Each structure stands twice: as structure tokens, then as C-alpha cells.
Here is the input.
Amino acid sequence: MRLAQQLFYLNSARRPTQILRRAMLRRAAKQLATYAFDAATARGAAASSTSRTFSSSAAHATTVLCVRKDGEVVVMADGQVTLGSQVIKPNVKKVRRLQGGVVGGFAGATADAFTLFERLEMKLEEHPGQLTRAAVELAKAWRNDKYLRRLEATMVVADKHHTFQITGGGDVIEPHDGVIGIGSGGPYATAAARALVDIDGMDALAIAKKAMNIAADTCVYTNHNFIIESIGPSDEVGGGDAAKKGDEKGGKEKK
Here is the structure.
């Protein structure tokens, strides 16, 4: 009887301690969960804010226009680089000639764009003379690759037969009228070029120059230092040496 009473009293003395310990553990677990949730929310908000800011700055970087008419293709871009409210450099080259008779231009982060150009050249080596397939393969890799999907840029590429806009969302867009523009001034340049493309006597170069001047006069992120890469009607696919190349400033031809 005495042993049973002693065990009863012992268990009764332990119960409050165990109950208190369990309550403290539950409270600590709730606090840890709250702290973890707040930290995750803060990280997500910071990442989202950074992504929005970077995408916005990338979109305000430039104007690139591609015009195709009567077998001639002209890719023209301005030279301004803007960081926030500052003009960092006025004469950056944002168009370049790739292998296989392909010319291209970019809007967005420079390092990202050159990485994508290198990947596109690799795809062109795998599929020579097939810009359509190379562009699709690049868009697939850009969309699915863990590293490439972080790159922030938009590309316009063209050869003698096709023009494409390639984005990180997996889009490969070919314009129906041979006119496409990207960047902050892209909509202005595209609208102007489409208004001029049906005018007799204006070739692709004249249309691109006029449209880019309108965009530069309208968009604060675009200047008049134009760089041109072109493919003429007589150029062969893969014949990059025969293609014409120009450097335009203020919309006037160098003499």
C-alpha cells in the first residue's frame, strides 16, 4: 500500500513538469515556424523586387529594328546604354554578324546577350544553313536550362530568308510583314517602319533609318548613334563577307 501511494505521489509530481515542458516545446516550435515563414516571405519579396527592377532596366536599354523588303534585310540598333536615370555610354554596338550569313541584335544585359549569341552560333554549327531549327533549339535550351533561364535579354536574328525574335519564355516569333522591333523604343520603330514599308522607292535601309530616327526622337532611352548590319539580295546564305555593313550616326550616311 505504501509503495502504491509513493508511486502515485511521484507520478503526480512529474505530471506538471512534463505538461509544462510539452507546452514550452510547442510554443518554441510555433515561434520557429513563424520565423521561418517570415524569412522565406522576405527572401521571396526581395527576389521578386530585384527581378522586376532588372527586367525593367533591361527593357529600357535600347531600340533594335529589323526590316526586310525586296530581298534586302537590315538590322539597325542605337548605341545608348542607360542605367537608371544615367546614360552610361552612347556608342555601344548592339548588332553583330554571326556565322552562316546571319545577323542579329539584342536588347537587355550585354553579357547575357553575348552568351546567347555564342549558344546560337553553336546551334548554327550543328545545323548549318538552318536558322529556323537553330532558333528553335536555342529557345528550347533557353527555356529549360537551369543556367540559361536566368539570362535577361531579347534577340532579333535574321538571314536571307527568315527573321525571328527569340525570348527567354520559349518564344520564336517570325513577323508576317518582315518588320520587327525590340527594346523600349521597339514599338515606335515598328509602327513607323510598317507605315513606310509599302511606299514605292524606299528600300529596307531607308525605311529602317527613318523609323529609327522617329524612335530616337520619341524614346528617351534611344539615341541617334545607329549601327547597321545588312544582307543584300545577291548575298548567299553563309556568305558573310559579301554582306554589307554600315555605321550610321544621326540617321545620316557616312561619306
